[in-house]
Amino acid sequence: GAVVSQHPSWVICKSGTSVKIECRSLDFQATTMFWYRQFPKQSLMLMATSNEGSKATYEQGVEKDKFLINHASLTLSTLTVTSAHPEDSSFYICSAEYFGPSGNNEQFFGPGTRLTVL
Amino acid sequence: QKEVEQDPGPLSVPEGAIVSLNCTYSNSAFQYFMWYRQYSRKGPELLMYTYSSGNKEDGRFTAQVDKSSKYISLFIRDSQPSDSATYLCAMSLNTGTASKLTFGTGTRLQVTL
């Protein structure tokens, strides 16, 4: 249980184009999902918190107009990188919040999407 | 100063060794502590979580939290080549909804035959 998928697993695009990344909770409903970015040999940095049915909350320094987040259902959140540039090349990882039988909540992560902008 | 400090390694140990991975943190408000394992080009996988000082054991893994010293550890017994991965510590201020995680940089572990 508690499986999170991401699509695509990798994408290469030209500078100036937009790329959409999907994050799905496969066997549970997730009111809250998170989007992270990870540069090589660095840790995961939280970009934004995605809440189903409401606007995402962005971390300081993350441009909301550049990284559009939509959480239209309890199992799907999307991240769109608009007008991508080479400096946006990174590993984008989502996580979904799962409430287990014991009542504790945990974050389960997707496998990540590697974005390369040429 | 980063909120969470973790030695990036790499740490190389022979098969069967006991591995000790550590993180220190500066924010005493952190209450919830986790260890994730991340294989190359994959998302992190939760190994252990705890929210109190002391030890928690799960198979070959033991998580240790010392809130007074702001120090957490993960011990791996009888290490295997399949344990070779990057280990990330993470922590949050609470266990409520939408708990934001703060990660360490990760320690790369290599277990050799």
Structure overview:
- The complex is a heterodimer of chains A (118) and B (113).
- Chain A is an all-beta fold.
- Chain A has no helices and eleven strands.
- Chain A has strands at 4-7, 10-13, 19-25, 32-38, 44-51, 57-58, 67-73, 76-81, 90-99, 105-109, 113-117.
- The mean pLDDT of chain A is 92.
- The model of chain B has no long low-confidence stretch (mean pLDDT 91).
- In chain B, the strands form two sheets. In chain B, strands 2, 4, 5, 9, 10 and 11 form a six-stranded mixed β-sheet that branches. A five-stranded antiparallel β-sheet of chain B has the order 1-3-8-7-6, with no helix packed on it.
- Chain B is built from no helices and eleven strands.
Largest interface chains and counts: A-B, 27 and 23 residues
Helix amount of chain B: under 10%
> Per DSSP, what share of the residues of chain A sits in E-state strands of 2 or more residues?
over 45%
Query: Assembly type of the shown chains?
Result: heterodimer
Number of strands of chain B: 11
The major beta sheet of chain A can be summarized as: 7 strands, mixed
The overall pLDDT of chain B, averaged over residues, is 91
- What string gives the helices and strands of chain A in order? EEEEEEEEEEE
What's the β-strand tally of chain A? 11
